[in-house]
Amino acid sequence: MTEAQLQKLVKILQAEYQLNQNLLELGEKKQGAIINEEVEVLEEIVREEEGYLADLEKLEGARANLVQNKKMTDLIAEVGQPYREQLSKLRKRMFGVIEELAYLNKTNEQLLKDALYLTNINLNILTNNQGKGTYNKRGADADRQQGQTTVINQKA
Description:
Layout lengths: L2 H33 L3 H29 L4 H7 L4 H44 L15 H4 L11
């Protein structure tokens, strides 16, 4: 690779690293929003994430095009100093932030599943649904047919 290409590659990787850092910060904010049940904040965070991911996709395309889909380790082995050390450090930092991001995303996913589970329990309690189907074999409303009412349909 030429000097100009290597400089461009370093700039692309630094930008990718910064975007991943931004995604990590947003993931932490997202975790707080999930825990505090702040749906509007969560929606705003997701929109921001989508923008960062679109930018990251463009950079990754430019990087792949520049290195002709070579593995980073192969590229590092081919280049001389000071780029070898610089690319090696960037690669290590990038893997670190991506690993943190993956762990945080997995945690947030579990928090969302738990929140959904609790919401379903609350809905079942409010509708007095004890795991019964809503309709019987003939398609009639099974609960109304049996004379059952739900908490929502009862007057105070």
